[in-house]
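Consider the following input, taken from an annotated entry for NUBP2 factor (Picathartes gymnocephalus).
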Amino acid sequence: TLAERTNLAGVQHILLVLSGKGGVGKSTISTELALALRSAGKKVGILDVDLCGPSIPRMLRVQDSAVHQCDSGWVPVFVGQDKAIALMSIGFLLERPDDAVVWRGPKKNALIKQFVTDVAWGDLDFLIVDTPPGTSDEHISTVEALRPYQLLGAVLVTTPQ
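Applying the prediction step yields:
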């Protein structure tokens, strides 16, 4: 649809951050990458699709923020005084940040698709997508939803063991 094209139309590059297992530091890498790109003068967005452990809002100290609607969808939360990082996370949609999200595949996949299509990102140099751990359905949904757009690539986070 047209709305899908317009919400990501201003995004130059999309970067997925993936891992085969949990607890390896995907969210830390995503956050540090966003901060490094911002300090290099880039406009950056982070899409936190880690539905079971949305830690990026806490890492960027915006966990108490609310997401608002606009004509073209959800308005991301803007981070820092310069508002140079736009963030969308399931963490903003939960009653309490520590709530666990226990959803079956179809509902998770629908939310991921909605995150891809319904967030009004505006103009970004980079959109960093922090994915859940593993190689689940959610990854396939994320990649499928992003397939029509210009993907820069992926960062695969691993540990020595």
